[in-house]
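To the structural biology subgroup,

Please find below the input and predicted structure for Protein phosphatase, which we are adding to the shared reference set this quarter. The sequence is reproduced verbatim from the submission form. If anyone notices a discrepancy with their own records, reply to this email rather than editing the shared folder directly, so we keep one authoritative version.
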Amino acid sequence: MANSIYRASVLQSQLLFRPSLSNKHSVPKKSNLLCIASSQLNPIRSEVSFCIGTHLIPHPNKVDRGGEDAFFVSNINGGVIAVADGVSGWAERNVDPSLFSKELMANASSLVGDLEQVNYDPRILIRKAHAATSSTGSATAIVAMLERNGTMKVASVGDCGLRVIRKGQIIFSTTPQEHYFECPYQLSSELIGQTYLDAVVSSVELVEGDIIVMGSDGLFDNVFDGEIVSTVARHSDVVEAAKALANLASNHSMDSRFESPYSLEARSKGFDVPFWKKILGMKLTGGKLDDITVIVGQVVTSPAAASLNQVQMTGKMEEAGSGDTRGLL
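Predicted structure (tokenized):
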């Protein structure tokens, strides 16, 4: 969850949250799962593809509306995965921050199969989906597309992230883009926002067995890369791996004593406890309560992809705070 709406005239931000152990929450067992564009296609034969698991846990104060993250997965070519994170600052203007991210991902999901328009280019997909989004608001976004020959193309605007793990080592990481602390680059309904031209574009050659971990900043603000690697290593099932990562991020986010990636960054940017507390040896610690979206993909050799074209999911859960899906893409 990005907190600040980018405005050219704004020069500073503020640390909005310090967690407390009392912020534990329960998640209702029922919610909605939105599946779109599930038309039956002939199986796509490919050299490699993604096997995908997902898990989503909303911010405890946003459970009733499913949070402000959205994502989709698709079996087009070798597979497509994407996450968008609505900027929460729009709530101060009485705008639902989830509307923009959900519409952005719905548009991307419907456009991804149009080879003439998108040409299997994640930056073009971001451009087309952004242009088609009419909701007021803004969101960070990341898209990864796997080609059949193992080349994965990634385009990212803001602080959603992606890691590639090979044989227990991270071999590729995206880098967050931000104007200042708590104000990432963001696709917006306003002209002042960023566009596809601001996206960081990367290309990674993947091999069978590689693990891809994609998520909103709710994951990467609360879980260190080393924890991501060790957690994935303990789970051979991608759904279980995604669930374990999301639960770990959620637990860290509610631990006021945990030295999280978020608290370390905050201190490095000058946000800390008052001086008198520093004299007593105290410092700013704790995770960051947020929507948490995790997609775990394993690269597999597959003679035929699944017949489900694509699944688009917003911050909605089936049970126990999760939106789980697994399939050979």
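Summary notes: The longest strand covers residues 48-57. The mean pLDDT is 81.

Regards,
Lab coordination
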